[in-house]
Design goal:
The structure is a single chain. The chain has 140 residues and is mainly β. It has 1 helix and 8 strands; from the N terminus they run H-E-E-E-E-E-E-E-E. The strands form 2 sheets. The protein has a 4-stranded antiparallel beta sheet with strand order 1-3-6-5, with no helix packed on it. Strands 2-8-7-4 form a 4-stranded mixed beta sheet, with no helix packed on it. A hairpin with a 5-residue loop joins strand 7 and strand 8 (123-133). The radius of gyration is 26 Å and the shape is elongated. The termini are far apart.
Length: 140
């Protein structure tokens, strides 16, 4: 009998601690916050020759109400270099993130570019992929 009382007491106090844990409410969403919109989140170069132009432009737009500021744009490796505007983008405006892939390396590639901003969704990831092939031998 004592064992049953002790067991029930332990179960009771354990259940109280579980019930006391609550999930904190999500922070409120600012309805006026900037929204970063990028239609093209994946660019496929297909096959591209070694030493070819590895530049691609990702066009983005602020579809929110407040100014959009890109705080950082990072690539997954040093072979991909992004360039982005540093000034705020007003509501309804669009701009470009320029990504240059180093085509001096043969083989398939799949790289990510992480875009950090003050938007409702503070991180947006875009990707580039393709395959660098050797240059065709010149005709003699």
């Amino acid at each position: 009998m004592k064992k049953a009382i002790v067991l029930l007491s332990v179960l009771f106090y354990t259940s109280l601690s579980v019930l006391a844990q609550t999930t904190p409410p999500a922070p409120p969403v600012n309805p006026n916050a900037p929204i970063l919109f990028i239609e093209e989140t994946l660019f496929d170069y297909g096959t591209i020759e070694m030493d070819a132009n590895g530049v691609h432009n990702f066009i983005f737009k602020n579809i929110g109400k407040e100014p959009l500021v890109l705080s950082n744009v990072q690539s997954s490796c040093g072979c991909t270099v992004p360039t982005w505007p540093r000034e705020p983008l007003m509501s309804g405006q669009q701009d470009t993130i320029v990504v240059k892939y180093d085509t001096h390396r043969l083989g398939r590639f799949n790289k990510t570019i992480s875009i950090f901003s003050n938007a409702q969704k503070p991180l947006v990831v875009v990707r580039i992929q393709g395959e660098v092939i050797a240059k065709a031998a010149p005709l003699q």
